[in-house]
Sequence to fold (269 residues):
Amino acid sequence: MSEIVIISRGAKAQLDPIGAGFAHGYGIFETIKYTESGLAFWPPHWKRFQRSAKALGLDFYFDEKAVLAAIGQLIREDGLSVAMVKLSLLRNGPVTTLYVYARPMTSIPDSVELQLDVLHPINQHSPLSGHKTHNYMEHRLIFDSARKAGFYDTIRVDMDGSLAETTTGNLFFIYEGKLCTPALCHGILPGVVRSAVSDICDTEEGSYAVELLDKAEAVFMTNSAAGILPVSRIVGALSTFEIESASHSYCKLLKASFEAAELEQSVRV
Fold:
């Protein structure tokens, strides 16, 4: 049995405290950028949501049109023009509940400084790797630590020491004139924006050592809220990498192409 619950601004949701969703974070979520042009990259978000539900054994009997209608209702009730729409699918007692809600858009800087963490690797063999789950405390602890230290986010490695992703996005860099990104086998999320960037231009997916960052011509991270976010500085325990990513011609062209693709692939609700 499944149900859709719309949580408008100021409303509250009920969760069974002994249900797996509340007690163990047994659930998945999607975060989708909404503007007056519509829901950005809705089709790949929806497909990823379905794929994760199936892989993790969550009942998923929702019709896409019904979910879009619920999002549309939320947008009208809250009077939204720009927001991040959230879908959360949780085991809530005997039912699977899909919660539809939104959070405000935060301001996006022109470029960011990242911390490099090799002490808390991603377990690429975990059954949760590659999925956006509500079991998110590990990511949040590392993210909060980075923010307290004055950084925007943290670059993580996998158990073998290969570059993986940040706590909130995928990682790209330009090396020897090629656009590169860590492959999915390193436990990273198959990001919607990551996929869009790869569709725009040829991208090499592979295994990369941390030391390669020192030779990169530009580095940027991607997620649904920020799109493409250039990196100006990466600080590790033993070294610091200074990178003029925002002014790199490749990054400028890629950002313009991405913004056009985002607009073209928005779905109105």
